[in-house]
Design goal:
With 394 residues, the protein is of the alpha+beta class. Helices cover 57% and strands 15% of the residues. It has 9 helices and 11 strands. Strands 6-5-4-3-7 form a 5-stranded antiparallel β-sheet. A 4-stranded antiparallel β-sheet has the order 9-10-8-11, covered by helices on one side. A hairpin with a 3-residue loop joins strand 4 and strand 5. It is elongated and about 130 Å long.
């Protein structure tokens, strides 16, 4: 009799076992299809990366990620999404399977209660956070429109359509950056209490840790940033000026809050950190070539023995300067005698130019005209104590 009852129970379990195997098969099939789908997506993304269909991630003309890096990030996210979907399907399969058998039904109800409780907590958290979310959205919206207004004012000042006494147009953009940083920092400080979990010890600990790491790791960056602001308001040069920094001469092609870049006459690009710029002597050749100035003075020195009349040397040097292209006729070039040595006198020809972008070429033509002038006058420049001295790096 007992054997018959056992046989009846086994026969009664056969349909449940069949249903269980069917559910497991369906779950495995779904997971397999998910993996195939994500594999095809990965192949498509990899092929799109080579065809320039995926664009680089750019914020305000600054390339944060290349197209290849964006494709890699998408593939990485898809891989973890695939694992998450597979775990969800597996987690949903277990309660259904356990509920078919009396011995595991309690486990099934426990899993179902866990899922329901988790979803309920998430839903209640979203509902409770909704008023704070509205407040955060309002604060961020006010900040964004305030920044738009400031940006409009900065553009008007930079274009010269709006003037503020003693406020230069080239200050508009850096000042806007300062207000943007301060305003966003103020916004973050305001919305911080409205963030979920902001009062927890874990959240506060992470905030302190991030602050310490930022302060330690960005010391040089902050120094360059502060120096960039100081240089901006000092106005030692502007974009396009020809300057000399640490015995290196070039044109300013970029000036931001971190670095200054020069382009030399040899098309070499030199980058200076702002902290180095702030501690260096800066020579700006363009300030002497503004409209209200006479121009940049370029000069060269020659030496001749006392047998050569100084009047002749003066005339030849002045005529050579006047014959040089891009040299100002007014003010007129002039000669200074800078030294009376034992064997020779030193003569310095000075002339004005406003074409500071072609100074090396002007010097070349000036040298040629000086040589031609003395050769035509029959004066030999190959004396034993003869030498030429010019300004360095000009």
């Amino acid at each position: 009799m007992g054997e018959l009852f056992t046989l009846f129970e086994n026969l009664h379990l056969l349909p449940k076992i069949g249903i269980t195997l069917g559910i497991i098969a369906v779950s495995v099939l779904l997971i397999w299809l998910v993996w195939i789908l994500f594999r095809q997506l990965n192949k498509k993304i990899e092929s799109s990366s080579g065809k320039n269909l995926i664009k680089p991630f750019i914020i305000h003309k600054f390339r944060v990620l290349t197209a290849k890096q964006v494709a890699g990030a998408i593939i990485f996210l898809l891989r973890w999404l695939k694992y998450l979907i597979s775990l969800v399907l597996l987690f949903l399969t277990l309660p259904v399977v356990f509920s078919l058998f009396p011995a595991t039904r309690d486990i099934a109800w426990m899993l179902i209660n866990y899922i329901v409780t988790t979803l309920k907590d998430i839903g209640m958290g979203i509902v409770m956070f909704f008023p704070n979310l509205i407040t955060i959205i309002i604060i961020i919206t006010i900040t964004r429109y305030t920044l738009r207004g400031l940006k409009y004012l900065a553009n008007q000042i930079e274009r010269g359509k709006m003037t503020i006494p003693r406020f230069y147009p080239d200050w508009a953009h850096p000042t806007l950056k300062i207000f943007q940083v301060l305003l966003w920092a103020f916004t973050v400080a305001i919305i911080y209490p409205y963030l979920p979990g902001s009062d927890s010890r874990a959240f506060q600990g992470v905030s302190v840790f991030v602050g310490i790491v930022f302060s330690i790791g960005s010391t040089n960056a902050i120094g360059n940033l502060v120096a960039g602001f100081v240089i901006t308001y000092m106005r030692p040069f502007k974009i396009g000026d020809r300057v000399k920094i640490k015995d290196l001469t070039g044109f300013v092609v970029e000036k931001n809050l971190m670095v200054v870049r020069l382009k030399t006459h040899k098309n070499e690009y030199i980058t200076f950190p702002n902290t180095m710029i702030l501690g260096s002597n800066i020579v700006n050749y363009n300030t002497s070539s503004d409209e209200d100035e006479e121009g940049l003075i370029i000069f060269a020195e020659v030496t001749f023995g006392y047998a050569t009349p100084w009047q002749s040397v003066h005339d030849i040097l002045i005529n050579a300067a006047l014959a040089t292209a891009n040299v100002q006729k007014n003010p007129k070039p002039f000669v200074l005698q800078t030294k009376l040595d034992d064997f020779y006198a030193c003569y310095q020809i000075n002339c004005y130019t406003k074409d500071v972008s072609h100074v090396p070429r002007i010097y070349t033509m000036l040298y040629e005209n000086i040589q031609n002038g003395f050769r035509d006058a029959g004066i030999d420049m190959t004396s034993a104590h003869y030498r030429v001295i010019t300004s360095d790096n000009n």
